[in-house]
Amino acid sequence: MTTTFDERERAAERRFVQEEEARFHARNRRNRLLAAWASERMNLTGQAAEDYVTAVTEYAVVTEDEALIDRLRSDLGAAGIDATIPRLRTEMERCAALAQAERRVGVALNRGSSV
Fold first, then answer.
1. How many Cβ atoms sit within 10 Å of the Cβ of residue 56?
2. What pLDDT does residue 2 have?
3. What pLDDT does residue 6 have?
4. What is the DSSP letter of 3?
5. Can you tell me the distance from the alpha carbon of 41 to that of 1, in angstroms, rounded to the nearest whole number?
6. CA 106 – CA 99 distance, rounded (Å)
């Protein structure tokens, strides 16, 4: 026979798993939006843009935010685009907010990026 404590413990574990999954998906969406923003800046189109977004998103799964910013700065610099770290952080925050909003409403809201 289960007790109230056991039921509460299972519910707390389920809630923790759901929250962690939601955080992972929001971070992954943020990274995808950020990579798409960078690919736009580098004038990548079609398959090249898709490949870039995929590569950056996969890279970001196993790295910290600072390493992701460094990679984007390097990629943009190689394309002749000056991207400061504060600018990249601002864009990362914008993409994070957009990803959170999308999660709340359940629909993709990206209709372009900031200047």
1. 20
2. 64
3. 85
4. -
5. 61
6. 10
Q: What is the pLDDT along the chain (115 residues), one digit of tens a residue?
A: 567 888 888 888 888 888 878 788 888 999 999 999 999 999 999 999 999 999 999 999 888 999 999 999 999 999 999 999 999 999 999 999 999 888 888 766 665 544 3
pLDDT for the residue 19: 81
AA letter at 83:
A
Q: Are 113 and 87 in contact (CB under 8 A)?
A: no
> H-type helices in the chain, by residue range?
4-41, 46-61, 65-78, 85-105
Other beta carbons less than 10 A from residue 6's beta carbon = 10
User: Within 10 A of 44 (CB to CB), how many other CB atoms are there?
Assistant: 19
Running DSSP on this structure, what letter comes out for residue 83? -
* Residue 107 per-residue DSSP state: S
Q: What does the alpha-carbon distance between residue 16 and residue 20 come to, in Å, rounded to a whole number?
A: 6
Alpha-carbon Rg for the chain in angstroms: 18
Token couple for 31? 């990274």
